[in-house]
Each structure stands twice: as structure tokens, then as C-alpha cells.
Amino acid sequence: MEVKKPVIKSIPYDEFKDNAGLEKIIDELHEGGCNVVVGSLDQAINWGRSNSLWSLTFGTSCCGIEFMSVGCARYDFSRFGFEVTRNSPRQADLIMVAGTITHKMAPAFKRLYDEMAEPKYVVAVGGCTISGGPFKTSYNVVKGISEIVPVDVYIPGCPPRPEAILYGMMQLQRKVKVERFFGGANHKQTKEERQLGLSNEAIAAGWKKPAVVSEVPEDFVKNIKKEQEDAK
Q1: Are 175 and 211 in contact (CB under 8 A)?
Q2: At 56, phi and psi to the nearest 5?
Q3: Which of 55, 72, 135, 73 is nearest to 99 (CA)?
Q4: What is the SS3 assignment for 94?
Q5: Residues 6+ apart with CB under 8 A from 156
Q6: Residue 10 contacts by C-beta under 8 Å, 6 or more apart in sequence?
Q7: What is the pLDDT of residues 55-106, one digit of tens each?
Q8: Secondary structure (DSSP) of 140-165
Q9: SS3 of 178, please?
């Protein structure tokens, strides 16, 4: 079979935004035996980042046991690309804070967060992390880590079920996939973005409100249980 050699010429910007013109080029490449996938570089990079989120190990109390169970064979969060946990903030993408944070521990926690490279994320697991939990009236407990660092996903519970932690991590994946990896200072703000009063750097880093796992869908829990039964 004769395979045609595709020739891609530069095209004007107006034509590049025309879907019909792009589809015509793709059809020509397909006829020549080439497999073509069209998408933005942002989408390709964020797809890889969202499926390889490395978590800094930061379990301080009973919610840390739930995080350990999610990593074991019964739930196996390696299916989603979360299995690599690191002990160094310089190799981690996110801090999953699972447990109580005291005022004595807060400076060390903030230092670890500052040592992480951008883009970085924070997941608050359990009532103690989110608001102080049953110890919120104590003098030595931080009443929510949002007082120290910005939080991207809240997973409430005392402690939350492993299914809730998995679902919360999937919400973080969705948040990463819609970020602008490029843009920065050269990004032209829209009218809605100007009303927020944020810098381009803040918008590029992800300015959306944190995700809150208010409830885990029943279908998601049923699918997890079905997978466990099939594996027996």
C-alpha cells in the first residue's frame, strides 16, 4: 500500500481557529496513513499531571489510617495515579493533610508547603483538619488549615470513608485538568476575570473555589464494592 507523505504548511491564525479547516487537514493526514490527535498543549500536559499526582505523606492522626487503607490492595488508589507518596516536599505535588494540626506543628507544616514547587495543591481530610474537629475548643489546635495555607479540596468526615477520599482525589484531578499551564503574565483577562481583581499569575495558578465533597455518589460506591467482589 502506498503511503502518502503528509505536508503541513503554516496557516493563518484565523484559519487555525476554524474547525472546518482543521478537520480538512486531519482528513488529509488520515488518508496518508497518519494517526492524528488534536488538542491543546495545556490539555496534554494537564492530562499527564492529573494522572500522576504525588502526595506528601502527612498523616498526623486517625485520618492517616484511612489514607493508608486507600493505598492498600482493597481500594488501590494506584489505579488513578496516586500511588507515589513522597517524604520530600520537593518531589511532591500535593499535601494530603489527614489529621489534627496543632499550633506547635503549624510552622513546620507551613515550611513544608513553602518548600513545594508550583503548581501545588492541598487536600484537607477529616473534621480535625478542616475545622479542628472535636478539639476545636482546645487552646493548642488550629481551627482549620485554611488559616495557614490555601485548600483545594475538602473531604469532611470523622474519619471519612476510603471511598470519600478516592472521590475527593478525583475532584482534584478535575481541577488540575482545567488549569492553564501556560498563560501567566501574558494572559489577556476576560471581563469576568477582571471583576475578580486577581493577577494573571493567580489566575494561571488556579483561582477557582475549593471543591467540597459533600456526599459520595451511590453509583461510585457501588462500583467500588463491585470491583472488590469481582476481585475475590
Answers
A1: yes
A2: -80, 130
A3: 135
A4: strand
A5: 126, 127, 130, 212, 213, 214
A6: none
A7: 887 778 887 778 878 877 777 787 777 878 888 888 888 888 888 888 888 8
A8: TB-S-GGGTS--SEEE-SSSPPHHHH
A9: coil
